[in-house]
Structures are given as structure tokens and as C-alpha cells.
């Protein structure tokens, strides 16, 4: 199997950042904000501290006033996902804010909704930067992998080390839920498999061993906290990618299987205890009250025609069965949260935007399954099962869809 037949992503892509042009301060600000977020950030902080202020400032500088203005006001043509995103952005910055003001919602709670809403549009804000400098995509990929790896390491440190000076605290961070953690895990596994598909050499086996070892960190974080959807996605991803390689080159895929089995025996990894723990959790909690949570949202939004059409606004709360009946400002489903806050109109605009991005994601999958499925898993999970869509991580993973397509198309053109 050669690079042309396997569509070998890692053959054309080095994950370490290249030299950044000194004049492009926007890129410097973006990568600095991601690095700061990886080391000191909290996905959904209870309070805004200095790390959040600096991360937000650097992120704002990376976008710039002009680009933010263009994303809202500039007429867009021939790009459905951008046009749908523009409509959704304008709606989200007007109607739900007006409803929040009329309802007297707390400004701080409103901001906790507005900032995650703006993260959804990182593809619109930052794609021009990647398009102008496609080689920045490699740096973008690297910092997102860094975030996922350090978040999983942070989660393990908090679990095993009491009173550590840097990463321990009383706040519940739910780092192992973040889409960057699952993406980093899947991409490292897929890249490791890709290296072995090139041939059994000392270099390829060494890289395979290193990447698999690194991937065990996010897997451990997800296993300790029994993240059923994420761990299920890991198993499904391995099956899909191996099936793809088996179809492309059966002989090399057999070698990959043999080396993988040997690696599992050396690492002495047993899946039985993990499966038993996940099964016990499923028997105890089932679907974690997700259907009841949607019923509660539906009861709130159907209480009046206005709330059904426009929602209860940013900063609105409801009593959630999924958290013991506490009053919270989120749900565990992306679309039910938007139905609650922005109403039916917001959901319609949102579905149009997300559908446009998923269409781009399908193109990435067809061009490179290793990368595409690594992106698809955390996105689909966050849209349906986790509340991690309220994090910067989710916006960064969405950014990877459109920027990956730009990079892969350029790589294809260079081959020709």
C-alpha cells in the first residue's frame, strides 16, 4: 500500500507546528490562546479568572474586529454552511438577548451562554486565516491535540494526586468529557495504525508504540470516569479504521493486527474489567434521565407561544431531572438546549448551520477516514449526549472540519 492508494494523511501531515510568519500576529494570538487554555484553562469555569480573561483576549485578537464584522454583515455566496451560520449568528445575538433582557436574567449567566454560542462560529471567524496560510493547519492540529492530551492528563492528576500545586482544586471540570480529549485519542490511534500500514520497520513500529502509549492517557481518563459514549466510540473507531485498511491492503492489515495483538499482550491490557464497570453503570443509571430532561424542556418551551418560538433567552434556567431537579442553564443535548434558549426558530437556524458543517465533515471522511472519523465521533456525541458543546473545545473541533477540508484539498492539488 502506498500513499496514493491509502490516502495516507499522516504521510503528508506533520503534527508539529511550522514556523509562523512574524507579521501574522493573529495566528500567534490564536495558538497562544490554545496553549494557555491547554495548560490553565477550564472548559466551563464557575467564575471568570485571569486565565479565562487572557484566553478570551488572545482569541478575540486572533479573530479581529474586521473579521467579526464581516462574519455578521458581509454577504456570503455559494457556501450554504456560511450563509446558514451567518443567519444563526445574527439571530443568536439579537432575539435570545432581547428575551433575556426582558426576562431580567443575570448578566453573568447570560455571558455564560453567549460565549459558548460564539465558539460555535470559530469556523467562520478563523477559516480565512487557515485558507490564507494552509500550513497553519498543522499548528492548529497540534494545539488541539495538545489540549486533548493535557486535559486528559489533568483529569488523571486530579484523580490520583491530592493537593497538587498546579491542577488540583475543588471545581468539577469534567475534562474527560471534552471533545478534544476523544479527538486526540482517536487521531493518535488512527495515526499509529497508519504508520504500521506503511510497512513493518523499526521506525514505523517505534512511532506506533509511542502514539499508542500516548493514547492510553485519554483512554485511562475516560475509563476511570466511565465515559460510556467515548469508550464506545474508541472501540467503533478502531473497527472502522481497521476495516478500511483491510479493504485497501489485506496483507498489511493482517500485519497490523498481529502487531496490535502483541502490543496488547505486552501492555497486559484487559477489557473485561472495563466492560464490567460500564455494564454496571448502564444497569444503574440507564440513559441518565435524558428522555426526562427533554420532557422538562418541552414543558417549559410549550408553556406559551412566545417561548416556543423564541425560547426563554440566554441565561434562562429550568429544573433538570438529569441533575436531581436542580435549576440549571443547560441540558445534555445540544438541540434541546437551543430549543430552551432560542426557541423553534433558533433550532431551525442551528440545524441548517450544523447540517452544512456535517456535509463538509462527510467530505473530509471520504478524503481521509482516519481524520474524518476522529472528528465525527466527538462532534456527534456532543450534539446528542454530552453538555461539552458549551466549551471552547467544541468550537475548535468544528473549526477542524472546514480547515481540514482546505488542507486536504491543497494536498490533493499538490499531488496533481
Characterise the protein shown here.
With about 425 residues, the chain is mainly α. The protein is about 75% helix and about 0% strand. The chain has helices at about 5, 10, 25-40, 50-65, 65-75, 80-90, 95-105, 105-120, 120-130, 135-160, 180-195, 200-225, 230-250, 250-265, 270-285, 290-300, 305-310, 335-365, 370-385, 390-415, and strands spanning about 320, 325-330. Strands 1-2 form a two-stranded antiparallel ribbon. Helix 6 (about 80-90) runs antiparallel to helix 18, helix 11 (about 180-195) packs antiparallel against helix 19 and helix 13 runs antiparallel to helix 19. The radius of gyration is 22 Å and the shape is globular. The protein starts with a helix and ends with a helix. Mean pLDDT is about 85; it is low at about 1-20.
Brief summary of the model shown:
The protein contains 20 helices and two strands. It has helices at 3-6, 9-12, 25-40, 50-63, 65-73, 80-92, 95-103, 107-119, 122-132, 136-160, 179-197, 202-224, 228-248, 250-267, 272-285, 290-301, 305-310, 334-367, 369-384, 392-415, and strands at residues 318-320, 326-328.
Amino acid at each position: 500500500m502506498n500513499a496514493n492508494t491509502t490516502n495516507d494523511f499522516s504521510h503528508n501531515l506533520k503534527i508539529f507546528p511550522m514556523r509562523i510568519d512574524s507579521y501574522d500576529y493573529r495566528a500567534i494570538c490564536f495558538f497562544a490562546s490554545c496553549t494557555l487554555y491547554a495548560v490553565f484553562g477550564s472548559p466551563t469555569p464557575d467564575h471568570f479568572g485571569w486565565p479565562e480573561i487572557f484566553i478570551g483576549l488572545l482569541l478575540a485578537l486572533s479573530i479581529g474586529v474586521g473579521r467579526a464584522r464581516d462574519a455578521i454583515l458581509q454577504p456570503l455566496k455559494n457556501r450554504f454552511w456560511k450563509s446558514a451560520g451567518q443567519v444563526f449568528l445574527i439571530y443568536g445575538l439579537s432575539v435570545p438577548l432581547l428575551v433575556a433582557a426582558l426576562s431580567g436574567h443575570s448578566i453573568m449567566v447570560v455571558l455564560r451562554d453567549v460565549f459558548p454560542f460564539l465558539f460555535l462560529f470559530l469556523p467562520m471567524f478563523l477559516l480565512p486565516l487557515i485558507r490564507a496560510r494552509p500550513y497553519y493547519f498543522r499548528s492548529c492540529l497540534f494545539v488541539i491535540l495538545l489540549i486533548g492530551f493535557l486535559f486528559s492528563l489533568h483529569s488523571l492528576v486530579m484523580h490520583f494526586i491530592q493537593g497538587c500545586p498546579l491542577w488540583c482544586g475543588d471545581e468539577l471540570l469534567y475534562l474527560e468529557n471534552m471533545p478534544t480529549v476523544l479527538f486526540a485519542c482517536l487521531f493518535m490511534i488512527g495515526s499509529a495504525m497508519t504508520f504500521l500500514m506503511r510497512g513493518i520497520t523499526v521506525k514505523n513500529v517505534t512511532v506506533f508504540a509511542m502514539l499508542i502509549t500516548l493514547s492510553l492517557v485519554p483512554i485511562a481518563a475516560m475509563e476511570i470516569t466511565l465515559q460510556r459514549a467515548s469508550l464506545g466510540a474508541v472501540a467503533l473507531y478502531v473497527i472502522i479504521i481497521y476495516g478500511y485498511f483491510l479493504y485497501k491492503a489485506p496483507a498489511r492489515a493482517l500485519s497490523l493486527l498481529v502487531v496490535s495483538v502483541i502490543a496488547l499482550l505486552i501492555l497486559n491490557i484487559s477489557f473485561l474489567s472495563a466492560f464490567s464497570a460500564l455494564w454496571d453503570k448502564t444497569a444503574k443509571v440507564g440513559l441518565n434521565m435524558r428522555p426526562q430532561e427533554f420532557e422538562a424542556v418541552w414543558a417549559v418551551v410549550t408553556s406559551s407561544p412566545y417561548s416556543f418560538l423564541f425560547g426563554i433567552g440566554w441565561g434562562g434556567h429550568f429544573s433538570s431531572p438529569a441533575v436531581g431537579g436542580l435549576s440549571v442553564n443547560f441540558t445534555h443535548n445540544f438541540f434541546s438546549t437551543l430549543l430552551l434558549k432560542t426557541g423553534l426558530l433558533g433550532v431551525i437556524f442551528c440545524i441548517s448551520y450544523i447540517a452544512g458543517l456535517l456535509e463538509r465533515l462527510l467530505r473530509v471522511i471520504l478524503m481521509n477516514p482516519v481524520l474524518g472519523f476522529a472528528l465525527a465521533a466527538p462532534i456527534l456525541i456532543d450534539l446528542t449526549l454530552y453538555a461539552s458543546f458549551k466549551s471552547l473545545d467544541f468550537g475548535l473541533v468544528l473549526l477542524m472540519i472546514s480547515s481540514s477540508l482546505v488542507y486536504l484539498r491543497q494536498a490533493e492539488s499538490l499531488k496533481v
